[in-house]
Specification:
This protein is α/β, with parallel strands linked by helices and 212 residues long. It has ten helices and nine strands. The strands form three sheets. Strands 3-2-1-9 form a four-stranded parallel β-sheet. It has a three-stranded parallel β-sheet with strand order 6-7-8. It has a two-stranded parallel ribbon with strand order 4-5. Strand 7, helix 7 and strand 8 form a beta-alpha-beta unit. It is globular and about 45 Å long.
């Protein structure tokens, strides 16, 4: 891969928080997209953990065309192809393999691979990337790890995801090498079951002004 893809950082700079959303049904996914976008969070990561996730991405893209909808939990080339066909704008993976790096290059989608160790980070650098998902952020060392990485990897930027809450997000966002955080607190199972779109929009408004 020749040179870092500037589209990745452009997406991550759009808002301080990227909601990580696992859809159960299509209609609710569209409502979530509207609520998050109204609340000021235009970038939405839809995890591919449910059978209808790709269909949900397509519906969200069509319903809220100004939102930047992408997929999380991307594991293989087939999912990248499906994501592009659905109108997804970026792909996020929990980790990365040589095969996935190659597939992401071929798919020509902004790609945010997950890293949890220095060796994984260095492999990504060898592929020409300079921006990564730090996952699982809290379990893999949290802000202390990111601070330590800022020395040897000063040009690298991160979107930490995993175990971050509304209360701890600012601790990550204050770090010089963090562009944004990923969080599932905006679309919890409880909120989705209650179909409380107003609360999701309120949480988005609060997240959109972090670190505050």
């Amino acid at each position: 891969m020749s040179g870092a893809d500037p589209r990745v950082r452009a997406v991550l700079k759009l808002a301080p928080v990227i909601p990580v959303f696992t859809p159960d049904n299509i209609d609710d996914a569209v409502q979530v997209a509207h609520a998050l976008f109204r609340g000021g969070l235009p970038v939405i990561e839809v995890t591919l953990r449910t059978p209808n996730a790709m269909e949900a991405i397509k519906a969200m893209v069509e319903a809220v065309p100004d939102a930047v909808v992408g997929a999380g939990t991307v594991l293989d080339a087939r999912q990248l192809e499906q994501l592009k066909a659905a109108g997804g704008r970026f792909a996020v993976s929990p980790g990365a393999t040589d095969r996935l790096y190659a597939a992401a290059r071929d798919a020509d989608l902004p790609f945010l691979p997950g890293v949890a160790t220095s060796s994984e980070l260095m492999r990504g650098l060898e592929y020409g990337l300079d921006t990564f998902k730090f996952f699982p952020a809290v379990q893999a060392g949290g802000t202390a790890m990111l601070s330590a990485w800022n020395g040897p990897f000063g040009d690298v930027r991160f979107c930490p995801t995993g175990g971050i809450s509304a209360q701890t997000a600012s601790q990550f966002l204050h770090l010089p090498n963090v562009l944004c955080v990923g969080g599932s607190w905006l679309t919890t199972r409880e909120l989705l079951q209650a179909r409380d779109w107003a609360k999701i929009e309120q949480l988005a408004r609060e997240a959109a002004v972090l670190p505050g």
